[in-house]
Write a structure and sequence with these properties.
By secondary structure, this protein is an alpha/beta fold. The chain has six helices and nine strands. The two termini are 26 Å apart.
Length: 155
């Protein structure tokens, strides 16, 4: 984020990958090549999230694929993926919480998501805002291995 009136501390990177529910993959097979994505239903981001790196990656590698849904809600994409509605780009930490999801191994992977805190400069010194920022920085440091899972060089 770039704007003079905003304070934007970078919290870290979040690894993401293409996932499918085990029962979806049993019915449709797991794509091994990018070209095979056109034979699958995808769960993608709406136009409002088209600037996300993972949304751009999915559009670039699967421009001919059919989409079962588009959403700006990561939770809606997760729920649809768990329900077997298609393949979705999701954070790697879902593997630990949702064992029915499988990360697909493809020749190309989506880039990690950069996570930033964004605060207007007029609010930056407010104690409760400082408390939240401190909490987020500490949380991302404490959970770095989980958030960065799947990234090369990740702890």
């Amino acid at each position: 984020p770039v704007e003079e009136t905003l304070i934007t501390p970078r919290l870290g990177l979040q690894g993401v990958g293409l996932y499918g529910a085990q029962h979806y993959l049993e019915r449709h097979g797991a794509p091994a090549r990018l070209e095979e994505l056109r034979d699958h239903l995808l769960l993608g981001y709406s136009e409002g999230s088209a600037s996300l790196a993972e949304a751009q990656w999915l559009q670039a590698v699967a421009s001919e694929a059919r989409y079962a849904m588009h959403s700006d809600s990561p939770r809606a994409l997760l729920d649809a993926c768990i329900a077997g509605q298609g393949l979705a780009v999701l954070p790697h930490f879902v593997e630990e919480r949702y064992p029915a999801l499988r990360r697909l191994t493809l020749p190309s992977a989506p880039p990690p998501r950069e996570v930033w805190a964004v605060v207007h400069q007029d609010l930056h010194r407010v104690p409760r805002i400082q408390a939240v920022l401190t909490f987020l920085v500490e949380l991302f440091a404490r959970e770095a291995s989980l958030l960065r899972a799947g990234l090369s060089g990740a702890p």
